């Protein structure tokens, strides 16, 4: 008569053995893997589980903060050597140039860039009549020479970081700073010079569109004006063209002085008439004319 069937669970490192019955040695021990516990754990009742259950987590109802443009001045960002040099260069360029044209370009050959720099120099300082040389060749011998416009190949991401730190009112232009960028900077805000630079950019863009596709190239070289930083403001093509039609700053200052002085002259004339000076002079002339007539009689 067989004895009672007993179940025994043995725990070994990594393996748990289960013996269905010690009284039947003919049945081998079966190894059961992937079980790390030795005995069954009794589940708590509903009352005890409710007492010891962690509080339910609720999603946060606080509104998400919008992205901030604040800069930690006490702990500025540390750039690698090349990016630090570009950051310092663009910081100086933004602070010293009130007129910066932002250009996007692609696949421009070196010969075209050299020619475009010469065209920009001729647009700002045209050669004298009868002389093929530029004014920048001998700056000390040419009177009335203007400052030079410089073309800088820049990185749009670093320029956006500089504007975010130094000029937040112009940071909105960072949306147009995509791809290879160049900056055409001029150290003076002069509308006629702005018109000359725009003509040079339009002429260069038209030449690139009309040129044949270079051999071995899949894409045509391009250059396009995407915006400008003018006097601490961001301007785009239509507003930039209107600004270029304004006269020189000296002419504008003279017009403003004339407008301010004209009411003063009119007021002085009204006051002169109010004092009766004109009427007094008219009566004096009549009196003198009557006296002369009496003497003749």
From TrEMBL:
The segment annotated Disordered runs over 45-76
The record's listing under Gene3D superfamilies reads: 3.30.70.1730
Tell me its family.
Belongs to the universal ribosomal protein uL10 family.
- Protein name per the record: Ribosomal protein L10
